[in-house]
């Protein structure tokens, strides 16, 4: 079970376009759910399925509906909206907050925030922020780089050359996201995001050299704060007794949370340029996503050749 929380104060600090309308003493109130609620049926008095533990977002429709009520009706509704579990009210478009809502929220210790942004945009901003900060997280040993716009997680046993390979990729114009330890979280049902812990951000460790600040050494174009992970590379020591895929027709994957990512096992051996191989692997995965599969094309060519030779009476 995910136990991450975000306080209203933290939300305000990261969203300067949101201001406090009331309840400055209640900004330590915790938000535990990333979904937002836009009260609709609740404004008519139907509260059977009211999601009271969510951020309550009121836009032009909701505020205008409240303003059409009598004062007594409005007081009844806003009191029921102000549930003890409700973390915060958020008003969009810079609309004037009904006095009855301000009073009821203050009495219940619930802050009221206002933003000039329109409802749809504000909803997307807040939900993305909450999903990022409330999602379940896990640490993964490895190096995360962005290659041609694709997030590539390089894994392997300690000392196999992950950081050195990442350094060469950076010299080729690709970007570092995280070295040694990667923080992973699920953005939605199909995307895993990776980023570096703050203490390791922009840093890479090379044995025999020490810690290198990639941002200062190679410039802002050489780093990214985070990226969607598109594939996983597993570096393995060369073993003649181990069978590695040669044609690329074996489909393997690695699961993070509930998302399966393509997984390639790359053997490490003297004379093999890992940076070049990983570059090509990333381009090949991207080509497959665009509909071109070199392995499938090879198999089609081979099948066609076999059929031609059969017709000619020639053995292949």
Characterise this structure.
This protein has 316 residues and is α/β, with parallel strands linked by helices. The protein has helices at 8-14, 60-67, 71-81, 99-108, 119-134, 162-171, 214-218, 274-289, 294-312, and strands at residues 6-7, 18-22, 30-31, 36-37, 55-58, 89-91, 112-115, 137-141, 143-147, 150-156, 175-178, 181-186, 192-195, 203-206, 210-213, 226-237, 253-256, 259-268. The strands form four sheets. Strands 8, 9, 10, 11, 12, 13, 16, 17 and 18 form a nine-stranded mixed sheet that branches. The longest helix is centred in the last third of the chain and has 19 residues, at 294-312.
Keywords, separated by commas or semicolons:
single chain; 316 residues; alpha/beta; 9-stranded mixed sheet; 5-stranded mixed sheet; elongated
Work out the helix count. 9
Low-confidence stretches are: none
Q: What's the helical proportion of residues? A: 25-40%
Class from helix and strand fractions: alpha/beta
Average pLDDT, all residues: 90
Set out the fold topology.
Elements: E1 6-7, H1 8-14, E2 18-22, E3 30-31, E4 36-37, E5 55-58, H2 60-67, H3 71-81, E6 89-91, H4 99-108, E7 112-115, H5 119-134, E8 137-141, E9 143-147, E10 150-156, H6 162-171, E11 175-178, E12 181-186, E13 192-195, E14 203-206, E15 210-213, H7 214-218, E16 226-237, E17 253-256, E18 259-268, H8 274-289, H9 294-312
Parallel strand pairs: 4-5, 5-6, 6-7, 10-16, 16-18
Antiparallel strand pairs: 1-3, 2-7, 8-12, 9-10, 9-11, 12-13, 13-16, 14-15, 17-18
Helix pairs in contact: 3-4, 6-8
